[in-house]
């Protein structure tokens, strides 16, 4: 709720503070005293249009500061945090300034914020009903939401079911659209992958095969050189059996060993050398044996060499496309096979999504029809209730109805567009609220709607300006009674010139201009019982101290008090 509003430099208001209370607060005063500037200031505070002409002459700017109590958890607190502002425990400070040049600034919880944020918060904090203000319930989406809450739990339950099905339907539809739009790309990708997998499978590469083939090709390509080198090395180690004189390594080592063996016992250091020659002789003999075996195994095989080179060329072609080595090619084929399975599975997925979409559409159709039926019933009850309220508010011939337009497409809340219509007299066609009523009538229609919606469309604070325009007598009493009824569940602030309305207030503020023609801080006063009696007497008879007027005022206060307590 609003706890306090400070207005500076706005119209006739120089500097005034309004201390507000729960329940019904009325603001009264002489004509031109600045009562309407209170409503204008509240409109500014919650994102209304900044009109530099409203800046009081002689002031460089107009400013409005509001102090509100709000829940520390909820949409309002979340929005404040998103905008960078802070709550002081459960208190939110809003400010709005308008310069004489037309520049407008806003702060939210101590931080500068776009004016649009104030407008957004207004939907959850306040409903201002005045002839020059934007009306919350004039927006179709608000009318639909309020009607849904008015319809109660049956519609809320159906709407929850619908919302879940609608959300899933959107997900399925989006997936279908994405898969269908990418069908060509997926088919092309699948063809490329399938070709690669089949090409690799046909070649049947083996891990490490490319390195083995390279080694084999090198051996086959140099078979003659390898055999000759092995033979020459073997002969150098063991000698040529055909030669008459042996000059081989093994023979020379044997001669050296024989010479040393004869004298090794005479010097231990020479014995160690002899042992090393023995080891060398064994190693050379083994090497010679291996060389002989190798020379016999090396054969020139042109056919095998051609086969190896052909196989290497085949693997090289795969490597150019799918990886540097055979192992890389095999890894690519494994990944491609997995991806190909995914792509080929999309067709089954699309088929499954089509089936689910059809099932969800059928489900949505049934739920949307149920919402339409429930809204239709609630609309009839709502129209009758508001029409009854208007009869008591001096609009006996007016008729309110709700137009439901059911479309083909599913929306977040069903297929229905909701519009509240007003026919001000029997011969007038039903028209949207902002076209079917004058300014004063519209305020009364809004009051009737808010009273009917009270509790179903909970807004913490309602502000009414000129809700009693053009009425008096019994109708004025009924307006006061309904404002008091609305104030049982919300904070209600009313600017009024009717004593019958003011008598129902829980708190009464009087706005008075000073001798200089401006409203100062001392010009807004909260009235006690005696002060209220004087103010109501002035409003009734134009004379504060008229005994007849005071008696009538006391009677009004007594009747209103008894009515509120009933």
Automatic annotation (TrEMBL):
SUPFAM superfamilies: P-loop containing nucleoside triphosphate hydrolases. The keyword Thylakoid does not apply. Residues 2-518 form the RecF/RecN/SMC N-terminal domain. Pfam families: SMC_N. Residues 350-377 form a coiled coil. The keyword tRNA processing does not apply. It comes from the Bacteria. Keywords: ATP-binding, Coiled coil, DNA damage, DNA repair, Nucleotide-binding. May be involved in recombinational repair of damaged DNA. Belongs to the RecN family. This is DNA repair protein RecN.
